[in-house]
Amino acid sequence: MNYKWSFVDYGEFLATSSNKPVRAMEERKGKQASKDYGVARKERKWIPRIVHAKDRNFKWFLSMGMSLVVHWLCYTFALAYCQKYKYHTETWILPIFDFRQVMDHVVFAVLFYCDIQMSYVFGTLGLVLFLGAPYTPIFDKPYFATSLRDFWSHRWSYPIKLTFHRIVFTPLLNIMDQYNSSSKTKNQRFSKRHSELQLAIATLASFLFSSLFHEYIMVLLMPREPLGLNTLFFMLHGVLCVFQVSMQRITGYGISWGVGPGWAVLGWIATMITLLITCPLFVGQYARSGVMMQFPVSPIVLDFFKTIV
């Protein structure tokens, strides 16, 4: 944050984790990096789906409205299931062949996703429209993720991920660069952006910060639930993401080979299985406490859905 920001800048940053000064700063850093390294930066394969004010036409508002209706219907269905069939699990790791537990977690994951999606839209869209700021969706079809890195870096809770990237990942890399720069020549400093070890440390630090953030939410919303499971979940996924990147660099998978629709399907299956097996560590507390089941739904509608689940 900066004392030179206007009221609009602060409002946009609180709503979307970005604003005009931040975007301008990131653009300057990108140009400086291109100048320092002597090469143009490669275009990223993935970019967030930011919707600017000039692009918010009738078609966009119609699609947003239809999306909210679909999410509300899915949420109501999942809520009816969760109320009718009480959540239960006795392990931290989900037994993949236990149909009842798998079904419980899949349905609650739908409820969890829809609750966050609707809460984010209702909580930020009005402010974004009032300020005329770009709108950044919180999710980008996370159910299509083809790897854990794709899931956490690109598709799940992007504004929060962006915040952690700015306050943990990038500053830590800069600190390690400054620490090591004294022993390197200029050509060595610019021969490679960051070492694999530096990236691994920054990645794990970001996941640790995320775990502490979620533990803090646990204390506020679910004080009776045990602490530590969120930390175990996020650090496990952080290690798996680091392992994925290391194996890709060693084997060339996803870079020189392993690219295409067939490989993407295999990656999607592996990602969904990993998320499903480890999800009791994360969603178990939310399911037991019922904190994610507070979105308003008419009892008549809910009773109707209970008759069909």
Mean pLDDT: 85
Could you give the distance between the termini?
48 Å
Oligomer: single chain
Largest sheet entry: none
Shape: globular
Helix content: 55-70%
| Strand segment tally | 0
Overview of this protein structure:
The protein is mainly alpha-helical. Helix content is 68%, strand content 0%. The protein has 12 helices and no strands. It has helices at residues 7-16, 20-37, 58-84, 99-131, 148-155, 158-181, 186-189, 196-221, 229-251, 261-278, 280-289, 299-306. Helix 3 runs antiparallel to helix 4 (99-131) and helix 8 packs antiparallel against helix 9 (229-251). The model is unreliable at 36-44 and 185-191 (pLDDT under 50).
Keywords:
12 helices, 309 residues, single chain, globular, mainly alpha, 68% helix
Set down the secondary structure blueprint.
Layout: H1 7-16, H2 20-37, H3 58-84, H4 99-131, H5 148-155, H6 158-181, H7 186-189, H8 196-221, H9 229-251, H10 261-278, H11 280-289, H12 299-306
Helix pairs in contact: 1-4, 3-4, 3-12, 6-8, 8-9
Brief write-up:
This protein is mainly alpha-helical and 309 residues long. Helix content is 68%, strand content 0%. The protein is built from twelve helices and no strands.
